[in-house]
Specification:
Layout (H helix, E strand, L loop, with lengths): L1 E6 L3 E7 L5 E8 L11 E2 L1 H18 L1 H5 L3 E6 L5 E3 L9 E2 L7 H10 L2 H4 L10 H11 L1 H4 L4 E3 L1 H10 L3 E3 H5 L4 E2 L4 E2 L1 H6 L9 E3 L4 E4 L2 H6 L6 E3 L2 E2 H8 L8 E5 L3 E7 L11 E4 L6 E7 L3 H11 L3 H6 L12 E3 L17 E3 L7 H25 L6 E5 L6 H11 L2 E5 L6 H14 L3 H4 L5 E5 L6 H22 L1
Parallel strand pairs: 1-5, 5-14, 5-15, 9-12, 16-22, 22-23
Antiparallel strand pairs: 1-2, 2-3, 4-7, 6-8, 10-11, 13-14, 16-17, 17-19, 18-19, 20-21, 23-24
Length: about 475
């Protein structure tokens, strides 16, 4: 038996898999986000720990024999969070999260100070990453910065509680901006730029490698024996392991609160100018690229809340198949945008509203706007040499066939809808736990799921979607000008 643990932004999740890889049971616990100032986003690490204890306790009560048979645990979690510890491992302040935008000025200062952030880190310095968060703390909370002994990512703080080890995997660590991503090691020059050194960092392991043993008192609490913890992964790399996107040329599109276009690569392939995230994969000798949209299914959830209906009801009114793009444009920049604009300040818009547009037209515009923003990600990945002939769709939005057909039309490639339930980060983390405990080959464990449906581009509307995408791309510069 194998346990996967994931720290999301809104919830903790624990899943239990059997030897066949099937889901046996799962539990979750809700999390809240603190926003003490506009643009800030923080969580208390102790809330993660309580959530995991409650979730695993519940699994142990529900499936005591199965939990007792667990031999491997994998961890995944939201990336980029800055969890700061003193010499005694006490948390110095709430964790600054991935979607915190306070460090925009620090990003500009770090890029001017150290060009290696592009060359070695392979990414633009964005407020979401960990390094500028520490620079903000150094500038604005010097008394806290002076006490920092260790900086851990969210899942790795949980590892410290579970196993007493300061360790991280390479996929998650690549999102700090302190990693030499091509060399898969910490970069002293990047750490020095933020007043830190390698002693402040955890040790590094591959995501599928052993990375500690479960503490004896916790193993006894849940009736377990010897349990190996895997290095684990950042949430998107873990999701890739969960759906079997582990070979170069494979990819997935995620329609969660945020949106991701993910491609597995044989080597380090950055596109800094296009705001592509170029990171290590969770598995040895693999890297990945990501284009990131900050508000994907989150845009539809926002519209549903404004209209006072369920998101599924909005999608259902559109029917089974799109007949072509609408006349209304939506720019889904509700929380700024990453790829390709790297613009934390930009905000969204409807363009072309008239009295004939109803709830259905608004919904169609939102779905198309998110698809167009993901097409921008596709173009940014293509500029870095990546072409995907098909992608697997995951996330809440992936349950809407209409949305997947729009994506196929806009991407001009096949979009695959997998069978089964949640194949997300916790599922992938459990697979990494299995690899660490069993030593099995990646190809035997990280398989792709059966496909329920395939959506191919509709040649009858391909030209119309291409024209609509071109109009969409003209809108950002104009919107930027009037919002500046």
């Amino acid at each position: 038996m194998y346990l996967g643990l994931d720290i999301g932004t809104s919830a903790i999740k624990a899943v239990l898999l059997d030897e066949s890889g099937a889901l046996v049971a799962q539990q979750s616990a809700s999390l809240s986000v603190s926003r003490p100032q506009p643009g800030w986003s923080e969580q208390a690490p102790e809330d993660w720990w309580r959530g995991f204890l409650d979730s695993i306790d519940a699994l142990a009560a529900e499936k005591p024999r199965e939990i007792a048979a667990v031999t491997g645990i994998g961890l995944s979690g939201q990336m980029h969070g800055a969890t700061l510890l003193d010499q005694a491992d006490a948390v110095l302040r709430p964790c600054i999260l991935w979607n915190d935008g306070r460090s925009e000025a620090e990003c500009a200062a770090l890029e001017a100070r150290q060009p290696d952030f592009h060359r070695l880190g392979g990414n633009l310095v964005m407020p979401g990453f960990t390094a500028p968060k520490l620079e903000w703390v150094r500038r604005h909370e010097p008394e806290v910065f002076a006490k920092v002994a260790k900086v851990l990512l969210p899942k790795d703080w949980v590892r410290l509680k579970l196993a007493g080890e300061y360790l991280s995997d390479l996929s998650d660590s690549a999102g700090t901006l302190w990693l030499d991503v091509g060399g898969r090691r910490w970069a002293p020059s990047l750490l020095e730029a933020t007043g830190l050194n390698v002693s402040h960092m955890p040790g590094l392991v591959e995501g599928s490698a052993p990375a500690g043993l479960l503490r004896t008192e916790l193993a006894e609490r849940w009736g377990m024996g010897r349990v190996v913890l895997a290095g684990g992964a950042g949430d998107n790399a873990a999701s890739a392991c969960g759906i079997g996107v582990v070979n170069p040329g494979e990819g997935f599109v995620s329609l969660g609160t945020s949106g991701v276009l993910f491609a597995c690569n044989a080597g380090f392939a950055p596109n800094v100018e296009g705001a592509v995230h170029a990171f290590c994969h969770a598995l040895p000798n693999r890297w990945h690229q990501m284009g990131v949209v900050l508000s994907a299914a989150g845009s539809l959830a926002w519209l549903a809340e404004v209209l006072g209906v369920e998101a599924a009801e909005l999608v259902a009114q559109l029917g089974d198949r799109p007949r072509g793009p609408g006349t209304l444009l939506f720019l889904p920049y509700l929380s700024g945008e990453r790829t390709p604009h790297n613009d934390a300040a930009i905000r969204g818009a409807f363009i072309g509203l008239d009295v004939g547009h109803d709830r259905k037209a608004l919904t169609q515009a939102v779905i198309e706007g998110v698809a167009f923003s993901l097409a921008d990600c596709q173009a940014a990945l293509a500029a870095a040499g990546t072409k995907l002939d098909s992608v697997i769709a995951v996330g809440g939005g992936a349950r809407a066939g209409y949305w997947l057909q729009v994506l196929a039309n806009v991407f001009n490639c096949r979009v695959l809808e997998p069978e089964g339930g949640d194949l997300g980060a916790a599922f992938g983390a459990a697979r990494l736990g299995r690899l660490a405990a069993s030593g099995e080959a990646v190809a035997e464990v990280c398989t792709q799921p059966p496909i329920r449906a395939a959506y191919d581009p509709d040649p009858e509307v391909a030209g119309a979607y291409g024209e609509a995408l071109a109009r969409y791309r003209k809108a950002y510069p104009a919107l930027k000008e009037i919002q500046s």
